[in-house]
Design brief:
mainly beta; Porin; 2 domains; four-stranded mixed sheet; about 15% helix; disordered N terminus
């Protein structure tokens, strides 16, 4: 039998499990917590502060994606907290190759990524990458990169997670990086994410003598209802005096898949003699049931800085094994005014994003008035 409890929200009385009631009040606290973390993180950076959209210890340049909702196996390297929202097991293969010239600063190579959502809001991930190529100075940039991650989400509105990366070879050979991220979905129309990459770098705890800057990624996305269109804006700031901005748009095409386009600008202020770097990435992924296959192009404003990528992902939801505690929420409606109805819609939206809520039962506790037109109908003699 479902667990039951009662609380009042204005003129509404809601009876249900504490998993829905407590989170209705806690969502505002979580929103303030994410904003506070962002402000504290940015305040820890030296002035003038800036950053880059690509962390120092990043591996292959990933496909076009959203920071707030990378989806599937891409969550591990972009937004580890989102692994807790992955349903089932997702395994992705990625190949990045040269398109024009051999001076690809981001490196070419191959990567394998696996993410799995587990019961009780847990998520785990693993990645292995082999990066080949040269940096912008023509130096050898070949290295290997391994990563593991863990995430937890109490529901569909808030999540937290982290990952550990180890680099073998290349400029940052021997470096161990720690990444943390937080996700917030206050409604089905808005999403936020805060990711801190290479947290151990400024502390000198990277198990190497390399100086690794930390990078902060803050992004917000707006979802255009049920149209499948997401629009995102993000800012990146790091401890080595670099600033980056990005914008991305994702659209879902019925019976085909997803199309994503993004623009990233690094070294926006061109401090320390650096040159502004602009990258434009566009790609698609055709969906075949629970699987996907696609590719895209990454272009730069340089004659030898473009590349392409080919990727595919397989997997599906878990067969139900270990049961998760779920319940049916009961909403007692005691106010039929405009404000009362708005609160009912808000509570229904909360229930839609709660993993443990299996359904909602509405219980009107007021007498519904008859329409004036019905009262004035003439009677036959």
């Amino acid at each position: 039998m479902p667990r039951r409890g009662t609380f009042r929200a204005g003129l509404l009385q809601v009876t249900r499990d504490p998993g829905l009631a407590t989170r209705y009040c806690a969502d505002m606290l979580r929103a303030r917590l994410v904003v506070l973390l962002a402000m504290v993180s940015l305040s820890l950076l030296p002035a003038p502060s800036s950053a880059q959209t690509r962390p120092a210890t990043a591996g292959l340049e990933g496909p076009a994606r959203l920071w707030t909702a990378p989806g599937g196996a891409l969550t591990l390297g972009t937004h580890p907290a989102a692994m807790a929202w992955v349903d089932g097991v997702r395994v992705r293969f990625l190949h990045v190759g040269e398109l024009t010239g051999g001076n690809l600063a981001l490196g070419t190579g191959n990567g394998l990524y696996a993410v799995s959502g587990l019961p009780y809001g847990l998520g785990i991930g693993f990645s292995a990458e082999r990066v080949d190529g040269q940096d912008v100075m023509g130096r050898d940039a070949r290295f290997g990169r391994l990563g593991i991650g863990l995430a937890w989400a109490p529901g569909r509105t808030f999540s937290m997670g982290g990952s550990l990366n180890y680099l073998a070879g290349g400029e940052f050979g021997g470096v161990t990086g720690l990444n943390l991220s937080f996700g917030l979905r206050p409604s089905r129309f808005v999403e936020f994410s805060l990711a801190v990459h290479d947290v151990l770098g400024p502390l000198g705890l990277t198990t190497s003598t390399h100086r690794v800057p930390a990078t902060f990624h803050l992004a917000g996305a707006v979802i255009a209802g049920d149209s499948g269109v997401r629009m995102e804006v993000g800012v990146a700031q790091s401890t080595d005096d670099r600033l980056g901005l990005r914008g991305a748009v994702q659209a879902t095409i019925p019976r085909f898949g997803d199309v994503v386009a993004q623009v990233e600008v690094d070294d926006l202020r061109e401090t320390g003699g650096r040159t502004r770097d602009v990258r434009v990435t566009g790609g698609f992924e055709a969906r075949l049931g629970n699987h996907s296959l696609g590719g895209g192009v990454m272009g730069r404003f340089a004659p030898d800085g473009s590349s392409y990528y080919a990727t595919g992902e397989i997997g599906g939801p878990w067969a139900h094994g270990l049961p998760e505690p779920r319940h049916v929420a009961e909403l007692a409606i005691r106010d039929m005014s405009a404000r009362g109805l708005v609160r009912v819609v808000h509570l229904l939206d909360r229930a839609l994003h709660e993993r443990e809520v299996a359904g909602v039962v509405l219980r009107p506790r007021v007498k519904l008035p008859l329409a004036p037109a019905a009262l004035s109908l003439p009677t036959s003699s």
